[in-house]
Amino acid sequence: MNLLKYHGSLFRLCGFFILLVFASNTFAQTKILLKNLNLIDGKGGAIQENTDILIDGQHIAAIGRDLKSTGARVIDLQGKTVMPAMISAHVHVGVISGNAQSGTFFTKENVLAQLKKYLDYGISTVQTLGTDRPLLYEKGFRDSLMHGLLPGARLFSGGYGFNIPDPSISKESFMGNLYRPLSADEVPGMMKELNGINPSMVKIWVDGSPQTKMKPAIYQKIIQEAHRYQRRVAAHVYYLSDARQLIRSGIDVFGHSIRDSLVDDAFIAQMKARKIPYIPTLALDKFAHAYMSKPSWLEDPFFKAALEPGVYEMISSSVYQNEQKASAAAVRSAAAFRIALQNVKKLHDAGVLVALGTDSGAFPIRAQGFAEHLELELLVEAGLSPQDVIRIATLNAARVLRIEKDYGSIEKGKIADLLILDANPLENIQNTRKISAVYKAGRKISNGPLKF
Asked: Once rounded to an integer, what is the mean pLDDT over residues 125-152?
């Protein structure tokens, strides 16, 4: 055997065992008994007062009043509220730094820092959609993140998305690693390659001007090939007319709100019949027009802690705010936001599965972590109850990722991903921002972004 190859294999094997020992030590712990808490279990029901939770290792072992467990470490929560840690089904990581976005920012250090930020804000699991880089799939990095073996939120990756050909996009652009087929004939080879990295979903960008939209023949072929590999397809969509055609083509998930017009009963019936989840990303359009004036959160430390360096100085400047006031795109986003609020209410009330996602991390102004809490507030603004909104941010999002067997609600046997709050979010949804502690797989990881 070649000596270099032998030593290389030996080093990789040693690295595997080191990771195994690290994981074993991480999850080897005494039982923890959380006492005197008010429980929101994520399933949409009423709060359970004066309840206890027993954690055994990574899992929830029991829930009930006056629990006892010999040898357990007892923590008296003194009436704090406990809900499942949140799950965001549409984010981006590693492509922003400071005031800029670029594919060159996609480093291991940047990805880990941003996943830590999500977890500090009570988001224990995220799904990226379409802008990841090959680095993520090297040396087991993505798999370690997905299984919670590294610090920060777990990461499910949609790999490399599909978009229209655009020669102006450089490889270094944050969207520079996407597939851009010129014809449907190119799709099978691209999908075969994408399938090789085991994406959680396939992302397609469909909308744009009539001259720049993805051709139906191409996205139909993408959907067909993805389904051949048992992969679901999520669409970046804006127009109702595109959404109708996508449903006819077999789309699996809508990754954004429909924002040009109100959905009608026939469309809603089609979504229900196909069981298509809807990820509204209301925060996207809110951020896009909020700085035409001074938003209520601008000086909130909970918001400022989520920003990349230099972003606060940019968005709080009079120059930026005047630019926003004069921006046709900001005016368009404000109108789109109003339609999005109405559509998510109609779809939710009709029984369509709505799940949390924000598109945070795609641009510096979409603050990772804070965006998810803002999304909850905006869903309540749309007319949904806090109980339903918390379910959207937990169990519903877990269902979109197909991980609801282990995550998304507080039930016996599930992984103990918990968000402990100093106030009840059913009374005021902004109370999700009053974070006392964050637990990931049965271990207290963080006191929130403002407590160190």
From this structure: 97
Beta strands at 59-64 and 233-236: parallel, antiparallel or unpaired? unpaired
33 bridge partner residues = 54, 74
Instruction: Write down the residue that tokens 């009539």 correspond to.
Output: 210
User: Which of these, 217, 213, 220, lies nearest to 183 by C-alpha position?
Assistant: 217
67: left (phi over 0), alpha (psi -120 to 50) or beta: beta
Q: How far apart are CA 341 and CA 364, in angstroms?
A: 23
Query: What secondary structure letter does DSSP report for 101?
Result: E
Q: Give the CA distances from residue 225 to residues 126, 137, 193, 276, 407, in Å, rounded to whole numbers and listed in that order.
A: 25, 22, 11, 18, 29
Query: Is residue 127 within 8 Å of 359, Cβ to Cβ?
Result: no
Helix (H) or strand (E) holding 10: helix 3-27
- On whether the CB atoms of residues 222 and 189 are closer than 8 A, the answer is no
pLDDT at 30: 81
Closest to 204 (Cα-Cα) out of 226, 176, 183: 226
For residue 427, give every residue at least 6 positions away whose Cβ sits within 8 Å of its Cβ, in sequence order, or none: 386
The model's confidence at residue 273, banded by pLDDT at 50, 70 and 90, is very high
Query: For 275-355, where are the alpha helices, taking DSSP H only?
Result: 282-290, 301-304, 311-315, 318-325, 328-349
Q: Which two tokens stand for residue 431?
A: 């109370």
For 226-262, write each residue's pLDDT tens digit.
Answer: 999 999 999 999 999 999 999 999 999 999 999 999 9
Looking at residue 11, its pLDDT comes to: 38
pLDDT confidence of residue 15 = 45
- Of the candidates 293, 290, 292, the one whose C-alpha atom is nearest the C-alpha of residue 282 is 290
Question: What pLDDT sits at residue 209?
Answer: 62
DSSP assignment of 43-74 equals SS---EEEEEEEEETTEEEEEETT---TTPEE
Percent above pLDDT 70 for the chain? 92
Phi, psi of 295 (to 5 degrees): -70, 155
Residue 309 CA to residue 315 CA, distance in Å, equals 12
**Beta strand 233-236 with 253-254: parallel, antiparallel or unpaired?**
parallel
Q: Which of 182, 169, 235 is nearest to 206 (CA)?
A: 235
Model confidence pLDDT, tens digit, residues 81-110: 999 999 999 999 999 999 999 999 999 999
Which residue intervals of 105-205 are DSSP H helices?
A: 108-120, 141-146, 187-195
Measured distance between the N- and C-terminal CA atoms of the chain, rounded to whole angstroms:
51
Domains and CATH numbers, the chain: 31-83+411-446 (2.30.40.10), 86-401 (3.20.20.140)
